[in-house]
Amino acid sequence: MLRTVFALLRLTLLCGPALFIGTALAQSSEPVITLRSSAVIVVPAPTSAPPASGHVPVQLPDTWDAPSSPGPSSGAARVAWYRLDFATPSARTGIPSDGRLLAAYIPRACSNLEVYLNGELLHSGGRMTEPVTRNCYRSQLVALPADLLLADGNRLDIQVAGFPQNRVTGRQRVGGLSPVRIGPFGLLQRQHEAQIFWNVTVAQVIAATLSLIGLVMLALAWTRRLGYAVYFGLLSLGWALVSTRLWWRDIPLAHHAVEVATSILFVPLAVCGVLFVLRYCGVRSRRLDVLLWSQCLLMPAVLLAAAPERLFVTASACYAVLAAEFILAVVYFLVRAWGTRRRDFFFMGPILALAALAIAAEVGVQLGHIDVPRVQMIHFAIPLLFVALALRLAQSFARTLADAEDARRELEQRVAEISAQIERNFSHLAEARVEQVAEKERKRIAADLHDDLGAKLLTIVHTSDNERISTLAREALEEMRLSVRGIAGKPVHLTDALADWRAETVQRLGDAGIEVEWQGAEPATPRTLAARSYVQTTRVLREATSNLIKHSGASRAIVSCSVDEDFQLVIRDNGRGIPLELDGRLDRGHGMASMKNRAKQMQGQCLVESGPGYGTVIRLTLPL
Fold first, then answer.
1. In degrees rounded to 5, what are phi and psi of residue 495?
2. How far is the C-alpha of 265 from the C-alpha of 327, rounded, in Å?
3. 60 near 206, Cβ under 8 Å?
4. How far apart are CA 15 and CA 18, in angstroms?
5. DSSP of 495-561, one letter per residue?
6. Helices 342-367, 311-340: crossing angle, 10 deg rounding
7. For residue 583, with 0-12 CB atoms within 10 Å meaning exposed, 13-18 middle and 19 or more buried, which class applies?
8. For the segment 102-150, what is each residue's pLDDT rounded down to a tens digit?
């Protein structure tokens, strides 16, 4: 099963490079020689001229990863000389030479090389001693001058300085030489530029993009307190830093220090990747965080303590552990998202799954199950997934921001409503406070009237020898008591009010010689009148009774009361009615205006119906 998966990954990784290289070759029918048979000799240090003897035959590509390889198997940087014999394309194919410039295209020579044609130095990739120039990710194109080429029997000597597999942390940087192509300069230049573009230029562009994304994510995490954005920002910046080894050729450090430092940088990157996945799905565990971050001390200590000749094995073990942790985190995320967050499963799931697949493919490359691709897919496949993740996170943040904005507007509306309610409550409290103060003041005034003025009027009633003065004092005392009752504000039971009104009205009309009939039933349920309504109704009834006695000339009156939704009081007499000359001017006399105004003050109405010879009807209607 594992071999089947690695076979599929191998097909995926190789189809891209093979596609553009195969297309470049298929579009041209020009002659290209591919040199695969070579002779090699290993020497302890770089030399300025090709060795004359001591070579053994090898087949290209030659990679210094097997014990039987002619390349160095141990020690620091070593040098191997490769000797290739070739004839010019015109001599091999029978096509006459047209004088165009020829070139040697070397897809891979790791870490550095020098090229000699028939004993003459044509090209140098940089330093051949520590720190060796690192050209493992760069192809080499060497022009072959026509004046150095022979019609037949040309010799190409390539001096390669590199490191065996046990002294590197990735198979992409193992020393060796690929097959060499000889052909027209223009054709090979296109292949050379394509490989440089994919291996170096694309990686530089993506690194710059990742740096920008990382800074944006860190700024977002700082302003919005998003935990997962911190780890994603650090992961993006860290990958951009690690990818500098693809184009930084002359690093001023020894090979072993560069390899160890690169491996150490991958540890916090992997930890940030795992924590990003866990934080995004809402998992927070202090113990798990401590275990993950402790690897940033443990694994570097293991790498630093490992013997130089066991660097590859140690680094591969560390990579396998980190890859397993990330894959487990992705699996956990997919399971959790499938159960609770389906949208994240369908959006983030494929991206994280592809990232885990690419990491698994890289592990397969390091373990030798997949050949090292000419175009380093892992170096821009993972960053492209980072970009996709960043777009997804930006979309998620935009949606969250929109939801937060909606929530803010809703909160503002709610706050406005609550503020208005508070203002209304405050207004009601203020009114209640004013009412309390007014009530207190009314009670004080009522008490003063009752205690002072009432006592004096009562004294006049009982001590005055003048009957008129006593009568006026008695009437004033009754009015004062009525006013005090209204000012005090104590509600009056409707039954008690009806009894008071009946007693007073019957007495006054009886004293005036007018027969009176009181019609009314007790209310079905206990009802009350506000003190002010009681006072105003009493005065309306007194005014109506006074008018009936003074102006109606009636001998009989009927007073009826009814209680329903409203309280209605009707006073009828059989008097002469209101004269025609007063028609239309009822509000100007007989106290009609005062009765109507008092009714309006109680939110009711007072209607007067009359005609000459038909008596008068006064209807008072008040809401309860």
1. -60, -45
2. 19
3. no
4. 5
5. HHHHHHHHHHHHHHHHHTT-EEEEEE---SS--EE-HHHHHHHHHHHHHHHHHIIIII--SEEEEEE
6. 160
7. exposed
8. 999 999 998 899 999 998 999 999 999 889 999 988 999 999 998 888 8
